[in-house]
Design goal:
The complex is a heterodimer of chains A (111) and B (114).
Chain A lengths: L3 E3 L2 E5 L4 E7 L4 E9 L5 E8 L4 E4 L2 E6 L4 E6 L8 E9 L4 E4 L3 E6 L1
Parallel strand pairs in A: 2-11
Antiparallel strand pairs in A: 1-3, 3-8, 4-5, 4-9, 6-7, 7-8, 9-10, 9-11
Chain B lengths: L3 E4 L2 E4 L5 E7 L5 E7 L5 E9 L2 E4 L6 E3 L9 E3 L8 E8 L9 E2 L3 E5 L1
Classes of the chains: A mainly beta (111), B mainly beta (114).
Chain lengths: 111, 114
């Protein structure tokens, strides 16, 4: 079945890079997503990567995908206090037609 | 476009009461889904629909019913509310595109069952 796992918490200093990791089990995943959720708000799509790509860069965000190990990471460069939020990775598999989420990583950015 | 709208924003129910959470989208998306979010558990899929007249179960469907009579609307019904259904509920919609099935989320409904 599908399962997505993330570490629960990450704390970084403002200006440093943050790396949030995620592992997934469904090898038929076609798209992998990163969402951001600020307190009391809904989910905002940050970026996505197609399964035939290894890396995608979008301004301060870099997504790395290791298909062999089923490992996905999100790097945020020059992390700011406004980046403090919960980050969810999610996988979409055309075989199941579902979006399955990880439990979320709470990022705390210290001044 | 209003995107995905959900009503109500907040609701308190007594155990055994029934209610319907409303979800509507104006983007002509085929795919709609309901998730519940509980602390430390991420979002879990309750039910989803790939088009009008078609629904299917997600990971945690028990205690919930859905129907999809139009493309725009996807209501979620709680027939007999239980305290275990206290949660934040999110509706989402999508259509296939460049980003796969990029989901657009509503603002959520915070439900408390006492």
């Amino acid at each position: 079945g599908e399962d997505v796992e993330q570490s629960l918490f990450l704390s970084v200093r403002e200006g440093d890079s943050s790396v949030i990791n995620c592992t997934y089990t469904d090898s038929s995943s076609t798209y992998l997503y990163w969402y951001k959720q600020e307190p009391g708000a809904g989910l905002q799509l940050l970026t996505y990567i197609f399964s035939n790509m290894d890396m995608k860069q979008d301004q301060r965000l870099t997504v790395l995908l290791n298909k062999k190990d089923k490992h996905l990471s999100l790097r945020i460069a020059d992390t700011q206090t406004g980046d403090s939020a919960i980050y969810f990775c999610a996988e979409w598999a055309d075989s199941s037609y579902k979006l399955i989420f990880g439990s979320g990583t709470r990022l705390l950015v210290r001044p | 476009n209003a995107g995905v709208t959900q009503t109500p924003k907040f609701q308190v129910l007594k155990t055994g009461q029934s209610m319907t959470l409303q979800c509507a989208q104006d983007m002509n998306h085929e795919y709609m889904s309901w998730y519940r979010q509980d602390p430390g558990m991420g979002l879990r899929l309750i039910h989803y629909s790939v088009g009008a007249g078609i629904t299917d179960q997600g990971e945690v469907p028990n205690g919930y019913n859905v129907s999809r009579s139009t493309t725009e609307d996807f209501p979620l019904r709680l027939l007999s509310a239980a305290p275990s259904q206290t949660s934040v509920y999110f509706c989402a919609s999508s259509s296939p595109g460049e980003g796969g099935h990029e989901q657009y989320f509503g603002p959520g409904t915070r439900l408390t069952v006492t």
